[in-house]
Amino acid sequence: MLEYQLLPLLCHILMLCLASLFLWSNASIVIKKSPPNIPVVGVPEKAVMEITSALLFAINRGLTSLHNIASGRHLKQFLAVTAGLWVLSAVGRWCNFITLFYLLFVLLHTVPVIYEKYEDEVDSSAEKVKTGIKKQYRVLCEKVLKGQPGDVLKVRKLS
């Protein structure tokens, strides 16, 4: 609402906290009160290494998957990733990163609960969508690629 970005907001909050603690510490000497008890905070190295290791594994798995798709062996995956990236870029034009992060956070916490509650309905709808996508893929192969869906994959494997 205030057009405040996340980084400046965090910096201003930290500056306010730091200035108030600094003034409190110096004023406590003048008014003969005890200074604030500021705890020492640190990040354990083991936790950082575990997070880094998991993040590295996920990044490498994603890059391997992108490499396999880019090699030209998986037309369906290539089309799905291209469509997904196109949709993501369109959504990215509508809102900033923090809004997308918030929406993703909310979706990741609500979609599994909704799926568990309405599992049968979601599965039947997903099956209908999958059938429709297969029909559209066949039409694409017949009209654009001038062959059967299996022929495109066989030609790719032979070359």
UniProtKB/TrEMBL annotation:
GO terms for biological process: response to bacterium. InterPro entries: Reticulon, Reticulon-like. It is a multi-pass membrane protein. Signal peptide: none annotated. PROSITE patterns: RETICULON. Residues 1-159 form the Reticulon domain. GO terms for cellular component: endoplasmic reticulum membrane. Its main location: endoplasmic reticulum. The chain crosses the membrane at residues 6-24, 94-115. It is found in: Endoplasmic reticulum membrane. Pfam families: Reticulon (PF02453). Keywords: Endoplasmic reticulum, Membrane, Transmembrane, Transmembrane helix. PANTHER family: RETICULON (PTHR10994), RETICULON-LIKE PROTEIN (PTHR10994:SF193). This is Reticulon-like protein. It comes from Vitis rotundifolia.
